Amino acid sequence: MNAVKIKENYQKALELYYESAEKGNAFSQLQLGKMFLLGVGVDRDYKAALEWHQKSAEQGNGEAQAYLGHMHEQGLGVDRDIQKALELYKKSAAQGNALGQARLAGLYMAGSGVEQNLRQAAAWYQRSAEQGNDEAQAHLGHIYEKGLGANRDIHKAADLYKKSAEQDNVLGQLRLGDFYLNGLGVEQNPRKAFAWYQKAAAQDKDPEIAAQAQQRLGAMYCQGNGVEKDLKKGFEFYERSARLDNAEAQFCVGAMYEDGVGVERDHKKALEWFQKSAQKNKAPSNRAMGDIYRDGLIVEKNIPEAIKWYKKAADEGDPYAKTELLKLQLEESAPKKARTDPAPAGKGDARAMAEADRQPAAAGVEKNKEKVRAGLNKTVEDANLPARGRLRPVRQPQSDPPQIEKKIPEKTIQKAVPKKIKQAKKAHAPGKLLYLFAAIGMIVVSLALVFIGLGNKAAPTLESLELKAAEITDLPRPDPQLIPPIILLPPGEILKRINADKSSRKKSGKKPLPAVEAEQATVKIEPVVLRLRREYKFLDEADLSKMLAAKNIFDAERNPEGNFQHRYEIRNAGGLRLIFDRATHLAWTRQQNLIKMNLKKSMEWIASLNNAGYGGSKKWRLPTIEEAASLLKKDGGKIFLDAVFGEGIQVIWTGDGFTESESWAVDFQNGTTARAKNKSRLVILMVSSDPD
Q1: What is the pLDDT of residues 542-591, one digit of tens each?
Q2: In sequence order, what are the residues at sequence separation of 6 or more whose Cβ sits closer than 8 angstroms to the Cβ of residue 385?
Q3: Which of 183, 280, 464, 592 has CA 20 to 30 A from 338's CA?
Q4: CA angle, 84 as apex, 81 and 86 as ends, to 5°?
Q5: What do you get for the CA distance between the two ends of the chain, in Å?
Q6: pLDDT tens digit string along 84-98?
Q7: pLDDT single digits (tens) 114-162
């Protein structure tokens, strides 16, 4: 049938509908209103459409009421009035009209003009879909796909999308294509996906959805997925989608212009498309703008502007942007530190010196770490701070030349020795044996005094010993050259002094002093470290239950009697606040901005942080299920995780697998270990077994 014949038929229908509508026929009034509303066989005229729909609706026509409600909802030929639209949709739906039911469901779904109610939306979509309404079928498919107001059912969603797509519904075609592309509810078939995308892209009923289909076609041509690879065609579809204001397509067009892929390279056009995409706050385009200002390829190099764009992308969860933002911020802060921080000195601010020691050196600024540490230790001594505030002495590398000791003249060391002892050694060489007995006697007496003092004290608990030992290990080792020489006395003189000391205490009424805490530093006690598996592996349910029982790890379902004990403390490293566990010697990242990604993206994100030396470490990773499950806190109430980790952490990834497509996770909301699809988006909680 040619165009002339079609035009004649529409003209004839218009005449017949007009004649019948003038006589008050509600059906003819409805059809005439639809022709003017949609511009079918006549120029589009919203005022005429409104007039004829109003006349038909007043006669109780349910479909006319639905169309009239649509015009009030969208403000077509009349001022926008959601409440009027809601009233008309309810009248239409009550009469069993499928379109009215679908539109009423849409208002409940969006909470527009009425309180949002997903269950009501699902119920009205269901009634409409059962009557074969393609719009309702597509939206009901979305409800089952996402589990909104109904239990999630991927197979039902696929079936509904198919019914809708076969009725030429553009949303149904797009989503059915997505299901075939990803193998959701149907067998994966990229060719079928491509075919459905083509149908959706060719429609003009909904430009936004058509643009999404065109963007997907562009990606499939560029990847050679479901169709022979063709970069030029890929660019053409991306550009068509971009001109319909699709932000993802605009970013891809910019990237192809920048790299000269599928089109001649043009940096100016690349920048234009990146800017259009970035205006919609899309993370990839914000990241691209950051690259442009960082490298100065298209515009003049501008690091503050690059930081601004990277921050926008980072706030939207872009891992690359977060890494680049961290790098630039560190590079920016290093020169400022070099300009504002004073050089390390014998006396000064210990915290500032420690921070200067931690920061990377700015360009052209040489730092001597040993001098910084020496200055800091001196500062601690002058301020009379606790020993834990000191830095550990720097150990000299084995490759350093030994002549450092030779620079210290022997005469200087000899001057520290009292003159009497030096002469005694020369005159009475046989007296060495006497000095040996004197030393032994002094040690015996000292030990006796220590045990007497300890007898008056309560026995320390294991926990206190571990804490003391932790403090002891942090103490700096004294320089042997700075220790004053011990003057050895004959045994008789030692006994005289002890008796004199006892007599003076009896006269004064003073009790012997207990052994001072510093005496305990002579014995180094290492805290017990509970080693948890650090290598990834595949575990089944039986393996997991066995592990939980063996390690005494709590799990509300599998091992409710477990009670793994931790000893958390907050540490600063490279500007980050870390949670160090003395019980396991593991360091965890304290969560601030919670990031959710699938397993693959999680691994890539951590790798990018390691490349950047995040927090001064390159050994961050996902925990094993053994490490992550140990964090479960018994009787945790609403959350089974210690408050030291912050709020909002629900389910986290681990590196251990269950199958090729599923991995183990830990659910802190319910206090259990769980399995998750690798494509799921979970929180990342990084751990390092090399905290130092």
Answers
A1: 889 899 988 899 998 888 888 888 888 887 775 677 888 888 889 988 66
A2: 350
A3: 592
A4: 110
A5: 81
A6: 999 999 999 999 999
A7: 999 999 999 999 999 999 999 999 999 999 998 988 889 999 999 999 9
- pTM of this structure: 0.47
Burial 67-86 (b: 16+ CB within 10 A, else e): bbbbbbbeebbeeebeebbb
d(CA 100, CA 110): 16
Task: Report phi then psi at 500, rounded to 5.
Answer: -65, -40
Residue 278 tokens read as 């970035």
| H or E stretch at 208 | helix 207-223
**Rg (Cα) of the chain, in Å, rounded?**
39
Tens of pLDDT along 16-68?
888 899 999 999 999 999 999 988 888 899 999 999 999 999 999 999 999 99
Running DSSP on this structure, what letter comes out for residue 260? Answer: T
Cβ-based burial of 88 (10 A; exposed 0-12, middle 13-18, buried ≥19): buried
Helix (H, G, I), strand (E, B) or coil at 568: strand
What is the separation of C-alpha 566 from the centre of its chain, rounded to a whole number of angstroms? Answer: 24
How many whole angstroms separate alpha carbon 157 and alpha carbon 148? 12
Question: Would the CA dihedral through 265, 269, 272, 277 be positive or negative?
Answer: negative
Q: Which contiguous run of DSSP H or E holds residue 653?
A: strand 651-657
Cα 658 from chain centre: 23
**Alpha helix positions (H), 224-362:** 231-243, 247-259, 267-278, 283-295, 303-315, 319-340, 350-358
Specify whether the CB–CB gap between 184 and 154 falls below 8 A: yes
Q: Tokens for 499?
A: 């008796």
